[in-house]
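sry for the spam today, last one i promise. struct tokens for design, 716 residues
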């Protein structure tokens, strides 16, 4: 029962959210009371009197109550209600007439325009004249009642206008307050646009529709609409120069336009809208730059000033839309940035990551948020990275999972103060592993070019003197042989007594010794010349970088040439043994393979030297396994400890002292074999005993058609 009463009270008190809505029920209640008093004092004994009285009460109260509920009273009800008031007043006596007429006229004065009040005044004057003529009301009484009614009509009409204006201002203030809260909570430009059009529509009871248009490139494009507009309105475009002079003049910071008549109809026509009696326009401007406008379509010109409220709303909407645009642009930049961006508290707790950070760390944002950023950095790089000067890039290794390899990055750390005063870390990391790989390839290419030029020059410089030295030694060999033959013939033919002086010379020259040692010396010279020529050919073959295309090459020859070139690094620490199988021609970039073998052999020599166990052994083997040519380089060096096994092929990782190694050798091997040849490289090791590196190269060149049966036949 109590709930029903509350609903009834709430229903009848619906208008009390405004000051005018609070005044109207008071006058309506008084009007009902005076009407009931009139009925109570009326003479209902005459024939048909009850029915006439009930009809008069109905004619008075029903239009008043219905008009109160609807918020407006039609003009024609003045006459109907006036007749009812006359009937009630006549039946109850003149004593009740004044009060009933007064409260009725005052209640009606709270509704309608000046035209309604003129009609009301005419109706009251007609009632007074009719009362004086037909009901014989004394003229002084009629005049006093007429003057009182006119005064009440005028006073309450003015009061209603003032209260209505105050209520309009209150409605606009509430609309602005609500819009301000919704602007602050909006997350996108579409949300902010919807808030603006809704707030504008509620600012005036005569507002029929509202829209927001963005002005750019000489055109105005509708991006939001509300009210009596079709959904397809959004997206329509109109040239700004066709909007009308008053509208264009208002599209400046702080501008405003309220047009009606032809100007309002023209604006509606340009946007293909239903014509409105009046149109209000306020520009959207930020930093003295107009980028749009709010358009409010009204059923009539507002009786009070709409400019302040609409321009305030437009300023708030413009600021919010600009902020949302900035946020949207920032979001696009952050989400599409190739660099990993991480925002963490000063203690390292991650607050935000962008998609690039998720990809780099191979973990989702849900996994990363709330975790410790410091656990993602390599412990060896942590202190230097976090202590680096602002905006100075530091090389550091990072990974998102413990079972993944470290990724080399260039990181910039910024310490910032947020709006709440807390300190945060902005960590910006860029994956440079690919760049490092390309740099190593470029260095490798340049090194090969330099070695090639050097080898070609050395070979050219050595080849010519070696050729004439070899030719001259062979000439000496032939000449000495001929000389010995002549000497032998001379000894046989010359008499003993004649040869005595010559014998003394022969004995002094130790001719027998010369006969035995000179051929040996000449043979050794020729052997040395042959070795030098062999080294020259190896240098020329090793130094030739080849082209980018894979071409069939003899791996065994490449290995032998590399051993010769690396002899200076090997001879003092190890012996090199080979077990080279009969390999088919392998499609490869021979310069890359030369560099790979050189790096593996030198790495083996360094491992043996570091073991400090005396002279070691480097054993190189080749074989065919299915569709791959396999090269193995085994050494008797230190081996690889489990702690560094997963870092062995990382760029710039080295076990040698500072300045003793670059850490690029094995990383380059992996790049040359895996990335450039599609092969494989791995190793087996026994700490303290040695390591064996295995290189697998595909026998079939994917860029050239080879039949599988031909490869298998060659491998057999």
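last one done:
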């Amino acid at each position: 029962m109590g709930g029903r009463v509350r609903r009834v009270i709430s229903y009848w008190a619906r208008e009390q959210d405004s000051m005018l809505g609070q005044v109207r029920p008071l006058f309506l209640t008084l009007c009902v009371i005076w009407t009931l008093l009139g009925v109570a004092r009326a003479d209902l004994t005459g024939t048909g009197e009850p029915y006439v009285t009930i009809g008069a009460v109905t004619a008075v109260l029903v239009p008043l109550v219905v008009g109160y509920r609807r918020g407006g009273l039609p003009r024609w009800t003045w006459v109907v209600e006036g007749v009812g008031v006359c009937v009630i007043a006549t039946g109850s006596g003149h004593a009740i007439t004044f009060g009933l007429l007064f409260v009725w006229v005052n209640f009606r004065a709270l509704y309608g325009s000046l035209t309604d009040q003129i009609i009301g005044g005419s109706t009251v004057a007609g009632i007074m004249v009719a009362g004086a003529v037909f009901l014989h009301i004394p003229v002084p009484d009629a005049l006093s009642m007429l003057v009182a009614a006119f005064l009440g009509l005028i006073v309450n009409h003015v009061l209603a206008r003032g209260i209505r204006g105050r209520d309009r201002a209150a409605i606009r203030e509430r609309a602005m307050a609500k819009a301000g809260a919704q602007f602050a909570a909006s997350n996108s430009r579409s949300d902010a646009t919807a808030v603006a059009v809704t707030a504008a529509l509620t600012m005036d009871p005569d507002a029929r529709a509202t829209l927001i248009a963005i002005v750019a490139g000489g055109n105005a494009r509708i991006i939001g609409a509300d009210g009596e507009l079709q959904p397809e309105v959004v997206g329509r475009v109109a040239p700004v120069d066709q909007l009308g002079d008053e509208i264009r003049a208002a599209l400046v910071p702080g501008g405003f336009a309220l047009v009606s008549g032809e100007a309002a109809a023209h604006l509606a026509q340009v946007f293909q809208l239903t014509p409105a009696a009046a149109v209000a326009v306020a520009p959207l401007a930020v930093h003295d730059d107009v980028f749009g406008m709010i358009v409010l379509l009204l059923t009539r010109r507002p009786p009070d000033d709409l400019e302040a409220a609409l321009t305030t709303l437009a300023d708030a909407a413009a600021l919010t839309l600009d902020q949302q645009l900035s946020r949207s642009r920032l979001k696009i930049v952050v989400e599409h940035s190739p660099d990993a961006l991480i925002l963490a508290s000063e203690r390292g707790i991650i607050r935000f990551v962008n998609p690039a950070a998720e990809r780099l760390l191979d973990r989702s944002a849900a996994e990363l948020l709330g975790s410790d950023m410091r656990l993602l950095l390599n412990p060896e790089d942590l202190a230097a990275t976090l202590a680096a000067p602002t905006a100075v890039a530091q090389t550091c290794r990072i990974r998102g999972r413990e079972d993944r390899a470290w990724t080399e990055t260039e990181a910039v750390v910024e310490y910032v103060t947020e709006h709440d005063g807390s300190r945060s870390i902005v960590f910006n990391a860029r994956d440079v592993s690919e760049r490092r790989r390309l740099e190593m390839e470029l260095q490798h290419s340049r090194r090969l070019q330099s070695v090639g030029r050097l080898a070609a020059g050395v070979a050219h410089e050595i080849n010519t003197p070696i050729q004439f030295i070899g030719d001259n030694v062979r000439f000496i060999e032939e000449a000495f042989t001929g000389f010995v033959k002549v000497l032998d013939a001379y000894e046989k033919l010359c008499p003993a007594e004649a040869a005595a002086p010559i014998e003394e010379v022969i004995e002094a020259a130790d001719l027998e010794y010369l006969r035995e040692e000179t051929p040996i010396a000449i043979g050794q010279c020729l052997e040395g010349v042959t070795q030098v020529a062999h080294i020259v050919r190896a240098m020329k073959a090793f130094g030739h970088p080849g082209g980018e295309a894979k071409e069939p090459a003899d791996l065994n020859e490449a290995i032998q040439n590399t051993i010769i070139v690396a002899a200076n690094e090997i001879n003092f620490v190890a012996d090199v043994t080979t077990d080279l199988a009969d390999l088919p021609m392998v499609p490869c970039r021979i310069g890359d393979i030369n560099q790979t073998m050189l790096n593996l052999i030198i790495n083996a020599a360094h491992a043996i030297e570091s073991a400090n166990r005396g002279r070691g052994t480097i054993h190189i083997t080749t074989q065919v396994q299915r569709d791959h040519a396999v090269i193995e380089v085994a050494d008797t060096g230190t081996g690889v400890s489990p702690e560094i096994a997963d870092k062995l092929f990382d760029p710039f990782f080295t076990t040698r002292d500072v300045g003793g190694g670059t850490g690029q050798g094995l990383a380059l091997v992996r790049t040359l074999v895996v990335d450039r040849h599609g092969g494989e490289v791995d190793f087996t090791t026994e700490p303290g005993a040695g390591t064996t590196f295995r290189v697998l190269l595909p026998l079939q060149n994917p860029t050239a058609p080879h039949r599988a049966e031909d490869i298998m036949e060659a491998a057999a």
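The mean pLDDT is 76. ok im logging off now
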